[in-house]
Amino acid sequence: MNGLRADFARLRERLHRFGEEREAVPPPCCIDLKVTTACMLRCAMCRSWAMPRRQLPLDTWRRAVDELASWSGAAKIVFSGGEPLMVDDLPDLIRHCSALGFSTVLPSNGWLLDAAMIDRLAEAGLSTLLLSLEARDPLHDRLRGREGVWQRVEAALQRLREVSPPYTVNLQTIILAQNLEHVCGLVQWVLEDPLLSSINFQAVAPTFGEPEERGWHQRSELWPRDLGQLDEILQRLAALRREGAPIVNEPYHFAFYQRYFRDPDQFTAHRCDLGRILLMVDDQGEVSSCFRLGSIGNVREAPLRDLWHGPRASELRRAIRSCAVSCNLPVNCNFEENARLACPDLLQGGA
After folding, report:
1. Most exposed among 41, 68, 107, 239, judged by the fewest C-beta atoms under 10 Å?
2. 3-class SS at 22?
């Protein structure tokens, strides 16, 4: 009998702790729907194209978005890939999200942005189109692994200028060894082109789709070695931002990049908190805040709210808090949400 009482007491304590965590963890504020791994490019910084190709039915995505609308605190949904436009019914999913009041963001390499697709995205109510471009010359093709990519982006931009779509058009550029001399010129282009609203910069990170290991940068051809030149460019970008240039990154993000490029393993020194912020769903329905550390369940098997507050999510959050890998999420995509942990001194100082 005493053994049963002890077992019951332990169970009650576990349930109590679970209830406390459920109350303490807010709904996610960042939503990323990874709709495909498929891509027609072979980018040096990404191996998504080498992953198995899968696709969730549109109805499954719609049900997941309906759940998010009724529960999450997010106002924005990002559709990521691969190349998201390789999903034929993506405009239908964007339309569904827009109807529910979500702001929708579509990163794209621009390859499939013909006149018909530009119109479909407008009709779907897309909020922001985010075009990837590392340079306005064949360097972009070499980095993206296919000839003619930068010309396809330029052609897509010309078509967009002709129709003046209702959605915002922004650029996204990865800072890496090969394009350091191009990044400030891209800012000037955005300043001069009325179609383009802003440019967002990211730092080169572990190649997507490959194991993330400490010291990866030492083997990477993409990693900048000339820190003097890099500092000069990052400081110039921060200055342009302060002067009013349409750069998304805050000046302290560029100051953080200066630290990051000196020590990309610096996440040993502070925590990542994305387990409380970010909810991702992949093209198989798996749910996580960090797929490198595992899934917390599948949207086809349980409600998103239950998964987010479930025991597997609690375990994942503990693993994320002790993770020492400087992956793309806290360094780039979700830097702002995690910055209070990554660089509180830069936030306080304004950098």
Report:
1. 239
2. helix
DSSP SS3 for 276: helix
pTM of the model: 0.89
Residue 95: pLDDT over 50: yes
Mean pLDDT in residue range 23-35: 90
Q: Could you tell me which of 347, 344, 342, 202 has the C-alpha nearest to residue 272?
A: 342
Q: Is-contact 289 279, C-beta < 8 A?
A: yes
**Chain position carrying tokens 């194991």:** 211
In this prediction, residue 322 carries a pLDDT of 82
- Side by side, the strands of the sheet bearing 196-203 are 196-203, 168-175, 128-132, 103-108, 76-80, 30-34, 278-281, 286-288, 297-298
Is residue 78 in some structural domain?
yes
The pLDDT > 70 percentage for the chain reads 89
**Following DSSP, what letter does each residue of 303-319 receive, concatenated?**
-HHHHHTSHHHHHHHHH
C-alpha radius of gyration, the chain, whole number? 21
Residue 11's pLDDT is: 55
CATH number of the domain to which 339 belongs: 3.20.20.70
203: closest CA among 245, 246, 254, 239? 254
Confidence of residue 10 (pLDDT cuts 50, 70, 90): low
Q: Is residue 335 part of a domain?
A: yes
Number of domains in the chain: 1
Report which of residues 265 and 230 the model is more confident about.
Answer: 230
Q: Which amino acid is at 42?
A: R
Q: Is residue 225 situated within a structural domain?
A: yes
| Farthest CA pair distance, the chain | 80
Amino acid code (one letter) for 182: H
Question: Is 50 exceeded by the pLDDT of residue 6?
Answer: yes
Q: Which domain holds residue 280?
A: 27-346
